[in-house]
Write a structure and sequence with these properties.
heterodimer, A: alpha/beta, Rossmann fold, 2 domains, six-stranded mixed β-sheet, four-stranded antiparallel β-sheet, 12 strands, 32% helix, B: 365 residues, mainly alpha, ABC transporter involved in vitamin B12 uptake, BtuC, 15 helices
């Protein structure tokens, strides 16, 4: 289990994280949400060991993260950062393979290539495996890096060596609907295989679809934690984002969902506009909100 | 969730697959053959007109210990002039090509080259200072170090310059291409200016030596010089395989390399040391020879991709072949006079480099 205890990060006198404690249990998905600048990405960088906290400790299986060597950590957790640039002519397959070959998991090139291909397939990229990375679109590049992380987690020597984690920073930010689904499924599959997944996400609806647990960060503090239904609530979200947020439930599945406030205002200059009867939102709007 | 498998419409268009002309293994075999050819050429062509035909005679004489006057001359040319020159050319070419590849990986920038970013000039400055002050201020140093004084000074100059570059670029973020090049140009200019100052203080003979040396040449090749670069060649040869995985990780960025298990700071220090060892020793025996470090790794990546498991060995072989060939051209073009190797390399390299800049924009490698 990956666990943050009382983490404070202060950079140049300003506190980016204040006394944050949370845990990413094995086999579950924890999604970090919150407004811009809330410290979500900073928390992820602390959780992966890239950034040392000013105070507090991150523990992996009860052992302080800073006591792990980089190579040891690479066997236990994979990370997909928000953006990654590459100015050398790697193919998509070669980038994915780096997930197994850079840590040197004592896998042969052939088996690294096999698990890289499987990982690319899991994110819908196998047709583009031999395409140059620099020729791929933003969303495709993002999926290549997810595949690289999957390849790292799939390397044989990683299996059975204690808790494993997958840390994702905005994994669906550049993706279209179908590929969002594909990536969410890949993340969920990892959780089913016992991996503790932590993802930073801006899209509250995708967060609700993916998460076992949601943590809402505001100005460096965790203000709410729990199942999506408990955290994605009107008062919590409105206070956090500083605008009127009106969560609702999807028909059938009953998952919470949120529309951006702009979607709830009448089209400008359209006098004939009227809310259709039976619209869930009409009923959900509390008094005093226009 | 039902899995809707997305159709990537570009997958249906004609594939624009990676233009890999050869696998890594094929490239290495070809590079080794080219190097062998260049080595034979380097051994058999020269202004004296002695060719490889003399080799069996020379070897027999060497084994039996019986030499007559004509064989003695052939022996001198082949074994004491051309062979050390071949070995030094091989080391200079391989060392510069490999350090170019390493610097490009370290800075994540296909434009980095020890010559372009001032590392060679920094090494040269330290070496020039050692020559100029060898009888005065640096007398103790040259006395203790003997033949190693020059390569170790150049090595120290290379380490210092690279470390300063790393500090400057680190302040600006990882991909500060312009910063890297501008800082490198400034450091190079500073080193060159200081060398100019030292040259002012030199007499005519020293001045001619220094100038030729700043232009780059293998004409002073000798066995003591081979002995002097040997420890550096060993260090580079033994150190490189340990850096391959780290360099591959660093191509993704320092944070990503750490995620993949690379001890980034330690590996950066090792890369700097090994780069400086290769550049320093090369500069100490051959002066400033440019463009090898940028052209060779670039061509290798073009053919077989950027994986350092291929890039480093293939660059070493091709770099050796390139410098040996250029050196033969330097010897033969205006025979019996000899062109500086650095001039020949610049004549070959600069147009190729310009072509790369214009054609490919370098950014995509």
């Amino acid at each position: 289990m990956l666990e943050a205890r009382d983490i404070t990060v202060t950079i140049d006198g300003s506190a980016l994280l204040r006394r944050v404690s949370l845990a990413a249990p094995d086999g579950r998905v924890l999604v970090l949400i919150g407004p811009n600048g809330a410290g979500k990405s900073t928390l992820l960088r602390v959780l992966c060991g890239e950034l040392l906290p000013s105070q507090g400790e991150v523990l992996l299986d009860g052992r302080p993260l800073r006591s792990y060597r980089a190579a040891e950590l690479a066997r236990r957790r994979a990370v997909v950062p928000q953006s990654s640039q590459l100015s050398f002519p790697f193919t998509a397959l070669e980038v994915a393979m780096l997930g197994a070959t850079v840590p040197g998991f004592e896998v042969s090139t052939a088996s690294a290539a096999r698990s890289a291909l499987e990982a690319l397939d899991a994110v819908g990229l196998s047709p583009l495996a031999n395409r140059l990375y620099v020729h791929l679109s933003g969303g495709e590049r993002q999926r290549v890096h997810i595949a690289r992380a999957l390849c790292q987690l799939a390397a044989p020597t990683v299996r059975g060596s204690g808790a494993r984690c997958l840390l994702l920073d905005e994994p669906t930010a550049n993706l279209d609907l179908a590929h969002q689904t594909l990536v969410l499924e890949a993340a969920r599959r990892q959780a089913q295989q016992g991996v503790g997944v932590v993802a930073v996400m801006h899209d509250l609806n995708l967060a609700a679809a993916l998460a076992d647990e949601v943590a809402l960060l505001v100005r460096g503090e965790v203000v709410a934690r729990g199942p999506a239904g408990e955290v994605l609530r009107h008062e919590l979200l409105s206070a956090a984002y500083g605008c009127e947020v009106l969560p609702n439930r999807t028909p059938g599945a009953g998952r919470p969902f949120v529309l951006p406030p702009a979607a709830l205002t009448p089209p400008r200059g359209d006098a004939t506009w009227a809310a259709p009867a039976g619209n869930a939102y009409v009923h959900a709007v509390p008094p005093g909100v226009s | 969730m039902t899995a809707a498998v997305p159709m990537d419409e570009r997958a249906r268009r004609p594939l624009r697959n990676a233009p890999r002309a050869a696998t890594g293994g094929q490239l290495i075999v070809w590079a080794a053959l080219l190097l062998a050819a260049a080595a034979v050429m380097s051994l058999s062509i020269g202004s004296t007109g002695i060719t490889l035909d003399a080799l069996p005679r020379v070897i027999t004489a060497w084994i039996t210990g019986r030499t007559d006057a004509s064989v003695a001359r052939e022996q001198l040319v082949l074994l004491d002039i051309r062979l050390p020159r071949l070995l030094l050319g091989l080391f200079v070419g391989a060392g510069l090509a490999v350090s170019g590849a390493m610097m490009q990986g370290l800075f994540r920038n296909p434009l980095a080259d020890p010559g372009l970013v001032g590392v060679s000039a920094g090494a040269a400055l330290a070496a020039v200072a050692t020559i100029a002050f060898g009888n005065g201020l640096a007398a103790v140093w040259t006395k203790i170090m003997g033949v190693y004084a020059l390569p170790f000074s150049a090595f120290a100059g290379g380490v210092a310059t690279t470390a300063i570059l790393v500090m400057i670029v680190a302040r600006q973020g990882q991909l500060a291409t312009a910063t890297l090049l501008l800082a490198g140009i400034a450091l190079g200019a500073l080193s060159t200016a200081l060398m100019g100052l030292i040259a002012f203080a030199s007499d005519d003979r020293e001045l001619r030596d220094l100038t030729l040396w700043m232009l780059g040449s293998l004409s002073g090749a000798s066995w003591p010089k081979v002995v002097a670069v040997l420890p550096f060649a060993l260090l580079v040869g033994l150190g490189l395989p340990r850096l391959v995985r780290a360099l591959n990780g660093l191509l993704l960025g320092e944070a990503e390399a750490f995620h993949l298990g690379v001890d980034v700071e330690r590996m950066k220090r090792q890369i700097i040391l090994i780069t400086a060892a290769a550049v320093g020793a090369a500069v100490a025996v051959a002066g400033i020879v440019g463009f090898v470090g940028i052209i060779v790794p670039h061509l290798v990546r073009l053919v077989a991709g950027p994986d350092h498991r291929i890039v480093l060995p293939a660059s070493a072989l091709l770099g050796g072949a390139l410098v040996l060939t250029a050196d033969v051209a330097a010897r033969m073009a205006l025979r019996p006079a000899e062109l500086p190797l650095g001039v020949v390399m610049a004549l070959i390299g600069a147009p190729i480099f310009l072509h790369l800049v214009v054609k490919r924009g370098m950014g995509a490698g």
